[in-house]
Amino acid sequence: MQNLLDLEPAALAHWFAERGEKPFRARQVCRWVHQRFAADIGAMSDLAKPLRASLAGAAEIRAPAVLRDTTAGDGTRKWLLDAGNGNAVEAVYIPEDDRGTLCISSQAGCALDCAFCSTGRQGFNRNLTTGEIVGQLWHANRTLLQDNIGAPWVQAGRAPITNVVMMGMGEPLANFDNVVPALRTFLDDNAYGLSRRRVTLSTSGLVPWIDRLRDECPVALAVSLHAPSDALRDRLVPINRKHPLASLMAACVRYLERAPRDFVTFEYVMLDGVNDQPEHVAALIALVRDVPCKLNLIPFNPFPGSGFATSPRERVRGFANALQDAGIVTTIRKTRGDDIDAACGQLAGQVHDRTKHRLAARIPLAAR
Ligand code: SAH
Ligand code: SF4
Q1: Which of 109, 111, 202, 309 is found 20 to 30 A from 172 (Cα to Cα)?
Q2: Separation of 115 CA from ligand 2 center, angstroms?
């Protein structure tokens, strides 16, 4: 059975052509799946009955199974999704006044082993397929629509999810071949039709793949910086040993030639006594001076055995003020969904291990 969620619009057109069907039929089906969130080919009422019957015998619409569905007091909602073999990933819906953001996952686990990240601690399990990535958006839209959420943009006829951030579990650029078709589906007018500015990919800094993304599918870019020197970043974000800061900064500048926004967002997790001192802010200002950017400071979300603590609120504010004074637009990420463990870096792990049932709700910043 072909899962239609695995096919980006061009691939769906190709699949239809191979079956001797007209291209406009593929566009019709694309809209049924990604704009009306149909789960059943039989429901596609404007397709001729014989076509529906032949499609139903060859294709299905299959999103990852929901293991748990939790809503926080602030409206943040997370879905724990089955990734097979006892693994799970999460997608988080973050409603704000004028938009609905979905934070999605790209891998079960992650191989990059950043020192402060619970996903990294789990190690790498596997890449999600395109269908599993797109399925997170499909499922969130479908469910929120069915639940009749009263969001003003939905009342105005838009889909519940207006912005997507790839800031859940996994390193999206390490799963490039499945992530890019998913991004194209998010952007396509016959599918989700999101503008490139409303789709943000966050990477820990896989330099060659930043260049490929720029060439193949530029969307808004967030880079997880977390340290202003190679010595410290080598320790916190080990991929830095392979792609050090100078080459990362150069890749960011190259990316901006084609990016939908004229800045890169740098994420910087605030770790008490580790990267939050006056010398760090001074080095950070010097580092990013030549890169058009915004800084997003993330309060560290602790997890058992992490070995790190959250910087005190005052220190985070002082750090932000120093950046602002140097002319760098800086925001402090507000934590959402605390009561359901939906904070950054607290990711779902093995389904059978309750202590790892935590996840990342990454508040969109590039989407502002
Ligand atoms: N792998 C990608 C995207 C997923 S992580 C990346 O690293 O960019 C999304 C963001 O959450 C990253 O900036 C990551 O460094 C941050 N993060 C990870 N663990 C965290 C934690 N415990 N507290 C706060 N932020 C965390
Ligand atoms: Fe992977 Fe990102 Fe976590 Fe690093 S911060 S281990 S790249 S998910």
Answers
A1: 309
A2: 9
Cβ-based neighbours of 53, under 8 Å, separated by 6 or more: none
Residue 112 Cβ < 6 Å to ligand 2: yes
Fill in the amino acid letter for 246.
A
Q: Using one digit for the tens of pLDDT, what is the confidence trace for 142-187?
A: 999 999 998 999 999 999 999 999 999 999 999 999 999 999 999 9
Global confidence as pTM? 0.94
Evaluate: CB of 204 within 6 angstroms of ligand 1: yes
* Ligand 2 close to Cβ of residue 201 (< 6 A): no
Residue 329's DSSP bridge partners are 294
Tell me which residue has its CA closest to atom 2 in ligand 2.
171
